[in-house]
Amino acid sequence: MKDDRFALVLRGLAKSFDGKVAVGGVDLDVPAGSFYGLLGPNGAGKTTTLSMAVGLLRPDHGQAWVLGHDIWADPIQAKRLFGVLPDGVRLFDRLSGAELLAYHGLLRGMDPAVVDQRAQELLDVLALADAGQTLVVDYSAGMKKKIGLACALLHAPRLLVLDEPFEAVDPVAAALIRDILQRYVVGGGTVIFSSHVMEVVERLCSHVAILAGGVIKRVGTLADVRGERSLEDVFVEVVGGRTATGEELAWL
Amino acid sequence: MAVTAAVTAPRPVSPRHFVRLKLRILGNGFRGQTARVLLFVAGVLGGLFYAVAGFLGSALPGLADNADAALLVAALGGGVLALSWTLLPLVFFGVDETVDPSRFALLPLRRSTLVIGLLTAALIGVPAAATLIATAGLVFSAGALGGPGAALVQAVGVLLGLLFCVAVSRAVTSAFATLLRSRRTRDLAAVLLAVAAALIGPLQIALNRASTDTDWRRFLSLAEIVGWTPFGAPYTAGLEVVSGRYWAAPAKLVISAAAIVALLWWWSRTLESAMVGTASVRKTVQRTTPGAPVALLFPKALGWVRRDQFGAVLAREVRYWWRDARRRANLITFAVAALFVSAMVNFGDVIWGTEPTSDVSASPVTFALSMIFIGTLGALTLANQFGFDGTAYAADIVAGVPGRVEIAARAGAFAVYVLPLVLVIGVIVGFLIGEPGWIPMAVGTLVATFGCGLAANSMLSVVGAYALPETSNPFALNTGAGMARGLLSVVAMLASLVLAIPMLLGALFAGDAWLWLAMPIGLVYGVGAAWLGSVIVGDVLERRAPELLLTITPRR
């Protein structure tokens, strides 16, 4: 799958846990330079799909390529090219923010001087400079997201894979993260992120895929998927489920 | 106004609910987990073995119609049992936190309801059942010696004894967890933990001594004293009826009951802080010094380490062994246990005063054996090194750290702490027994066995890892993990010993030449084993990294 037009290509990714299908064959083409939103309700398989795409979880079937490199056959090359912000995964939180950034930078084989310079800049920009000497375990949830994002950005990857980057983030920090990501895409990077917040996806994304029950239900550019309607209407229609109460809950 | 309409009194929560909760969590944990079921069955069989052995041991004095022996077994056996419940969870086994106290923080439960409920739930388990069966033999003994009245009193005593054991294990681990959480007191906690670990050594030796001593009657006065402490009181109450001291039986039962109440009160105090601790911002925020990020990551002593992947993992691990309460607790207890084992093996006779100091005959073989044991024990803490990290290990996988680098750096960081300590123990013991000439042999043996231990435990940490719960209690274990941990430790010890067989053969058969040959051979052998281990294990890790991540991810 040597194709430079795509930053991330997934083919038939599938995973079951204890006989229960979590992801049932996902195909996805993320064009280079796109801002890609992976939408889905809770439990749709977003985290499982992204984990398989970055080599954290071995798929039962299927393959994943990052800028032409098979993540399972050629992991060293592939992993060099992307940065990841996982969700529901602990950071090495007994390190301070600055130490954590230094750790990630050195793991990526960067020059120590460059690590120092970029880490300082990231801490300043993300308003974490004061917290640089505090252990990450003492950070708030929003600060943990920000330091996680900084770790993913540090080595200036070509592709960013972000799992729920806006979860638990306050509006100011969210605006900041949006700005950083938009600048990154303008600079030639590719972002794929998962979310279930329609508003953010509508504002940022050039492409959207809606995942439900472990399969892709809709995929394409934002305009294609949305059509004449709002993204929320499309999402509710695709995912199904009720959005209003009836006779029940009379005791509330 | 629907919500403000009717207020009916809530139905009371009873311990029954906690028991059912625990059983349900246990049952759900086994669903589709064959390995876990097998481990549990193995645990039940192991528990049954000890239970039956204990029952026979405590019933024997009754069969033999020997009241003195009964007192000895009840007071000393029961006392050691209760002391084990106090110390072993801290040092080796942890506590089963299937029913995690912090989950109840938001429920409107009274403290007494919660504590009694949690205690009842804690009674469900293999160790508690085995303890009950083992001590039930005392009821038989009391009945055979003193009739049904004595048996009845003893039955009450045995039940109180079980409650005491479970309550003391919970109260002590909970108190230590609270101490370790706070920055102000955690160094104190570390010292206390070390003392607790240290107590196990003498205990072991005393037991061995008592069991080999032919004139066991001289321990009767000791048994009499222990019988009046909360550790021995519940188990000796029935025997007071046998000996006709009717006033003493209720007194001992009251001592036990009072101790249990006091422990539960103590537990409830620390429980509250544990429950709040997970929800609120902790008051003491730890700060590191300012400076350039990369320089900050590397501790001063490691300033010379290369700034690359290997160096980064090494530096982080060195920081983690000290900053992570769970790791530090492990490190300290094993270190101190090793110290005392060596002391006891080599100077047991002096310390226990059974032989005059001048007659101590140190033997090179005993000395070498104790060094082999310390070297092996030293690396044991590494057996679940990835479990300590939990999901944080994902960072290393995503960054594509080669398996060999990962394993070598982790072993190196661990050695930074343990190897100097182990060597110091060897040197000190060598001087203390008045044989400084044996120190080179000790160093060689220690390096060799420690190197083998690193290799064996690294392998186990990759293929035998298990998840640790994400709680603030460093002693907490998931259901069934206690068994896994015990089994893993045994396998790790055996594997390390097998790898270290050449050093054993040398010590046994090479004679005096070994005193000088051991050092060069040991250094080469130990470093070689550690290096070869990191290569082999590194390649295994390379293939299994995602699977390893899955096994150390706590199920939520």
UniProtKB/TrEMBL annotation, chain A:
It is found in: Cell membrane. GO terms for biological process: response to antibiotic. InterPro entries: AAA+_ATPase, ABC_transporter-like_ATP-bd, ABC_transporter-like_CS, ABC_transporter_ATP-binding, P-loop_NTPase. Coiled coil: none annotated. GO terms for molecular function: ATP binding; ATP hydrolysis activity. It comes from the Bacteria. Residues 8-238 form the ABC transporter domain. SMART domains: AAA. GO terms for cellular component: plasma membrane. Its main location: membrane. Keywords: Antibiotic resistance, ATP-binding, Nucleotide-binding, Transport. It is a peripheral membrane protein. This is ABC-2 type transport system ATP-binding protein. It comes from Asanoa ishikariensis.
Automatic annotation (TrEMBL), chain B:
The chain crosses the membrane at residues 37-57, 69-93, 114-140, 152-176, 188-207, 246-267, 329-352, 364-383, 414-433, 439-466, 487-509, 515-537. Keywords: Membrane, Transmembrane, Transmembrane helix. This is ABC-2 type transport system permease protein. It comes from Asanoa ishikariensis.
